[in-house]
Amino acid sequence: MNNDFMNNDLIPFRKLIEKKGYKFTIQKEIILRTILDNKPHINAKEIFKKIKRKHIGIATIYRSLKVFNELGIVKEINISRINYYEMKIFSGNPLHIHFNCYRSNNIVDIDSQNLNFDYLKLNKKIETKNNLKIYDSNITFIGLCSKCREELKCQDQ
Questions:
Q1: Which of 45, 85, 88, 138 is deepest in the core (most CB within 10 A)?
Q2: What is the C-alpha separation between 37 and 34, in angstroms, rounded?
Q3: How far is CA 1 from CA 18, 20, 23, 30, 34, in A?
Q4: How many CB atoms lie within 10 A of CB 101?
Q5: DSSP state letters, 22-34
Q6: 26-37 and 58-70 are packed helices; what angle lies between their axes, rounded to 10 degrees?
Q7: E strand or H helix that includes residue 69
């Protein structure tokens, strides 16, 4: 594999992918780079639109996302029957809650040190009470974002 196309920040991902027996192809590198360089929540069709000039098919994107998800590189979040992806490992904040606006479909990360502490306590309580080991979870609140609330408020007046 020619390392010329790969930046140093992708080396840990390459090592993990190859360690698990997968090839780290130029297509995987481009898809991973697209996820890293874009908004935190991106779906396969958005990735496809951004890289279509590179002649990477949607099936390749889905296969790569499946591998990334299995290896814990990305986290898959299902919102309104669409899977969105965000970086999971090597990120500054792997523990957070999501909010999905049902009107705009906007996804917001809820980040609060107090909430994170409560979240960890809840995980521990569930593990202890049910004799489980939790590795990951998806918590998504659904409602109206502030922008949509304002728009609806203005329409009502």
A1: 85
A2: 5
A3: 11, 16, 9, 15, 20
A4: 19
A5: ----HHHHHHHHH
A6: 80
A7: helix 58-70
Residues 6 or more apart from 49 whose CB is under 8 A from it? Answer: none
The pTM assigned to this predicted structure is: 0.70
106-141 pLDDT, tens digit each: 888 887 778 878 888 888 899 999 999 887 777 889
pLDDT (tens digit per residue) in 50-106: 998 999 999 999 999 999 999 989 988 888 888 999 888 645 555 678 899 989 988
| AA letter at 106 | N
> In the structure encoding, which two tokens stand for residue 83, read together?
């899977």
